[in-house]
């Protein structure tokens, strides 16, 4: 790992922990937005700019706006404490989960590794690159894979995002709740 990768992962870890520990909802939302932007940078660093842009737009942009609108429409309880008390059993479960997931990281090929599965299976990659333009009429191979070859999957994702948007509009259209 390069120093930049280590710095990005440390930043993401710190912002994730702070998001969970801050008692002030506004501070937690702002830190969560920084967490999402950190993830977007990591995705872009690992040559997945489409995922990075989606994370930046949805995670840091839309989600942050919805959360800010939600706290604007509700009352905030006053508190003198800055952080939530730590739930140690939850920390143990999350730590165990992180260890299990972390133990699989060595199975992933390095970025640009010539022995990665996508490069050692040229039939699939070659098929998409050779036939994507003719079979789909798209001007971009990635667009053709997402819109045509994975059309049902992409349509399902679009339905989920649409449903979440409608649900958010319904929730935000309600009256302000008072305590």
Largest sheet, described in full? none
Q: Over all CA atoms, what is the radius of gyration?
A: 21 Å
> Would you tell me the overall average pLDDT?
82
Q: Spans with pLDDT under 50 lasting ≥5 residues?
A: none
Structural class by SSE content = mainly alpha
Please estimate the helix content: over 70%
| Broad shape | globular
In short:
By secondary structure, this protein is mainly α. The chain has helices at residues 3-21, 25-45, 49-72, 88-102, 117-120, 122-136, 141-149, 151-172.
Question: Key terms for this structure?
Answer:
179 residues, mainly alpha, 8 helices, transmembrane helix, DUF4040 domain-containing protein
Summarize the SSE layout with pairings.
Blueprint: H1 3-21, H2 25-45, H3 49-72, H4 88-102, H5 117-120, H6 122-136, H7 141-149, H8 151-172
Helix pairs in contact: 1-2, 2-3, 6-7, 7-8
Written description of the protein model:
- 72% of the residues lie in helices and 0% in strands.
- The chain has 179 residues and is mainly alpha-helical.
- Helix 2 packs antiparallel against helix 3 (49-72) and helix 7 (141-149) packs across helix 8 (151-172).
